[in-house]
Specification:
By secondary structure, this protein is of the alpha/beta class. The protein has 15 helices and 17 strands. α9 links the parallel β9 and β10. α2 packs antiparallel against α12, α13 runs parallel beside α15 and α14 crosses α15. The longest helix has 18 residues. The chain is globular and about 65 Å long. The two termini are 31 Å apart. The model has no long low-confidence stretch (mean pLDDT 93). Bound molecules: pyridoxal-5'-phosphate. The site of pyridoxal-5'-phosphate has 14 residues, from α4.
Length: 445
C-alpha cells in the first residue's frame, strides 16, 4: 500500500518488512495506522488529519510533540558531537546526570543511563543482585514483582512482570521470581479518584513470600509506583510505606519502576515525592527527554553506589551496560526537556489540573460496557467489559474507532483504555478527549 503525505513524501507501508512492536495481525481489510508529523498536542496522518494525542506518544512526550527548544538542542548536539567513544563521556551526559540528581529526592544521586526503560529495569535488577553479592550475601538472588505489572521487554523485566500474556510464550527461563498480589480489587475500589483507601494491607504479602523463601534469598522488590503502559493503578493509601518498612526489616532493596510516572505524570519529578517513600533505586524512561529520543536510566542511592566503587583501583565498577547509552543527542534532548518542564512549570501544572482531569474522566461513568475508571495525576484507565470469548477485542476496537472516526489517539491494553496526555493539555482539550473517548466507547458497545 502506498500513502502520499501532504508534504509530498511517499510512504511505502510494507507490513512484511516492518514488524511493528505489539502490532496485531492485520485484518483482511486492515490498513496500518500511520502518522507522519506531530506538533504540541497533535499527530497528523499522511492525508492531513489532526489527531488529538491522549497518550503522549508512547506515554513520554510530556512537553508535547516536536517542541522547538528540544528540536534545536538536538540539531546543535548532532552537529557538535554525535557519539562518544566506548568508555568516554561528554559534557551533555555529565550535565544531564547532575540535573536529574538535583531533582531526585534525598540521596538518589547516581544516574546510570540506558537507552530505554526496559534496559533500565534490567540494569536495576542486575545492580540489586550484584550489590548483595559484593556485600557477601550472594544467596540473595530472588526478585519479587507484582501481579499484573509491566516492567518492559527484557528477560528480567518480563520475569518480574505479572501478566501471562507477556510471559507465556517465553518458556521457563524466568525462575527465581515471585509476585506480590495485585493491589486492585474492583469490588472494593471501583471508580476511585486517585489513591484508593482499601488495599494497604496487601503489602503484608511480602511477609508471606519471605516466610516461603527466607529473606536471605531475596534481592529486591520492584513495583510501578502508580502507572504503566498497561494499567493505571494508583497505590492504596499507605501501601508503599508498608512495603518500604517490610523491605527495611529484611534488607531487601525496594525499586520503583518510574518509567511512566517520572517527570511530571503524577505532578512531581518522581513518584517518591508524591508518596513520601524513598526507594533504593528508581528507573526512569524517555519522558526525561519528552520522548524526543529514546533514553532511560536508573538512579541509585549512595549506599548502593558506594558498594560498587570501593576499589581496587582500575577494576571495572559494574561489568554491564550499553555502550551507546548516555547518547549525546539523547542527553541534549533531556537537558532541553528539563529546561522546558521547569520554564513552563509543567509538573505543578499537572498537579493543578489533576482534579479537573479526574472529574472530566470520571464523568464517563454510566456509559455502556464501562466497568471502572481509575485516575491519578494526568493519567486514567477505563475498563470495558470484554466481549464474550474475545478478550481485548472491545478495547482494541475502541482504540481503532477513536483513531479512525474521532481523530483521537488513545491506547488499549486489552479491554482497558489508557489516557495519558502530554502535560501541556489545555482544559478545553481535556473536554475534547473525554467527549471523543465517550463516542468511541459507545461505538463499540
Ligand atoms: C512501568 C514500565 N516499565 C518499563 C517499560 C518499558 O519501557 P520501554 O518500552 O521504553 O523499554 C514500560 C513501558 O511501557 C512501563 O510502562
Amino acid at each position: 500500500m502506498t500513502i502520499i503525505a501532504r508534504n509530498g513524501l511517499i510512504f511505502q507501508t510494507d507490513l512484511d518488512a516492518f514488524w511493528t512492536p505489539f502490532a496485531s495481525n492485520p485484518g483482511q481489510n486492515g490498513s496500518p495506522s500511520v502518522v507522519s508529523r506531530a506538533s504540541d498536542m497533535h499527530y497528523y496522518t499522511p492525508d492531513g488529519r489532526a489527531i488529538l494525542d491522549a497518550t503522549a506518544g508512547a506515554f513520554c512526550a510530556n512537553a508535547g510533540h516536536c517542541r522547538a527548544p528540544i528540536v534545536n538542542a538536538i540539531k546543535a548536539q548532532a552537529a557538535e558531537l554525535e557519539l562518544a567513544p566506548f568508555r568516554f563521556t561528554h559534557p551533555s551526559a555529565i550535565a544531564l546526570a547532575n540535573r536529574i540528581a538535583a531533582v531526585a529526592p534525598s540521596d538518589l544521586t547516581h544516574v546510570y543511563f540506558t537507552n530505554s526503560s526496559s534496559e533500565a529495569v534490567e540494569t536495576a535488577l542486575k545492580i540489586a543482585i550484584a550489590y548483595h553479592n559484593l556485600r557477601g550475601e550472594g544467596a540473595r538472588q530472588r526478585l519479587i514483582g507484582r501481579e499484573s505489572a509491566y516492567h518492559g521487554a527484557g528477560f528480567a523485566g518480563t520475569a518480574v512482570g505479572g501478566t501471562a500474556g507477556h510471559r507465556k510464550l517465553f518458556g521457563t527461563v524466568f525462575a527465581g521470581v515471585d509476585h506480590l498480589p495485585s493491589t486492585y480489587d474492583r469490588d472494593k475500589q471501583a471508580f476511585t479518584q486517585g489513591e484508593p483507601e482499601w488495599g494497604a494491607h496487601l503489602a503484608e504479602d511480602l511477609e508471606r513470600i519471605v516466610a516461603v523463601h527466607d529473606c536471605s534469598t531475596i534481592a529486591a522488590v520492584i513495583v510501578e509506583p502508580a502507572v504503566s503502559a498497561t494499567d493505571v493503578l494508583p497505590p492504596p493509601i499507605g501501601y508503599l510505606k508498608r512495603l518500604r518498612s517490610i523491605c527495611d526489616k529484611y534488607d531487601i532493596l525496594l525499586i520503583f519502576d518510574g518509567s511512566k510516572s517520572a517527570f511530571g505524570r503524577l505532578g512531581y519529578a518522581f513518584a517518591a515525592e508524591r508518596y513520601d517513600v524513598l526507594p533504593d533505586m528508581t528507573t526512569f524512561g524517555s519522558s526525561v527527554a519528552s520522548g524526543m529520543v529514546p533514553i532511560g536510566g536508573v538512579i541509585v542511592r549512595d549506599k548502593i553506589h558506594n558498594t560498587f566503587v570501593r576499589g581496587p583501583d582500575d577494576t571495572v565498577v559494574l561489568d554491564q551496560g550499553y555502550p551507546i547509552s548516555a547518547h549525546p543527542v539523547a542527553c541534549a534532548a533531556g537537558l532541553a526537556a528539563l529546561d522546558l518542564y521547569e520554564r513552563e512549570d509543567l509538573f505543578a501544572r499537572a498537579l493543578r489540573l489533576e482534579p479537573i482531569w479526574a472529574d472530566a474522566v470520571h464523568g464517563l461513568k454510566g456509559l455502556p460496557t464501562l466497568l471502572d475508571i481509575r485516575s491519578v495525576g494526568l493519567s486514567a484507565a477505563i475498563d470495558l467489559a470484554p466481549k464474550p470469548d474475545a478478550r481485548g477485542k472491545r478495547g482494541f476496537a475502541a482504540m481503532d474507532r477513536a483513531f479512525r472516526d474521532f481523530d483521537l489517539l488513545l491506547h488499549a491494553a486489552g479491554d482497558t483504555l489508557i489516557l495519558m496526555p502530554p502535560l501541556i493539555v489545555g482544559e478545553a482539550q481535556v473536554g475534547e478527549i473525554v467527549d471523543k473517548t465517550a463516542q468511541a466507547i459507545k461505538a463499540v458497545a
